[in-house]
Design goal:
- The chain is built from two helices and two strands; from the N terminus they run H-E-E-H.
- The protein is of the alpha+beta class.
- The protein has one domain (5-52).
- The protein is globular, with a radius of gyration of 12 Å.
Length: 63
């Protein structure tokens, strides 16, 4: 799994870390901030709801 450090820092640098969620099968370091969901690939690979998500789909995250 790729480290998502750069992606999270890009969001932070653009001021989007408080309004954008990152959903990935990547891994995170302990210094990231914002909303992120990782390690989703097992659920998607099993044909769960994440398997049908496409680019541009709206996703609601209930924290």
């Amino acid at each position: 799994m790729r480290e998502m450090y750069k992606a999270m820092k890009y969001l932070y640098g653009m001021g989007l870390n408080k309004t954008t969620a990152l959903i990935t099968d990547g891994r995170f370091s302990g210094i990231n901030n914002g909303c992120f969901v990782g390690h989703i690939s097992p659920e998607a690979a099993e044909g769960g709801p994440l398997a049908i998500i496409e680019d541009g789909d709206a996703i609601e995250i209930n924290i």
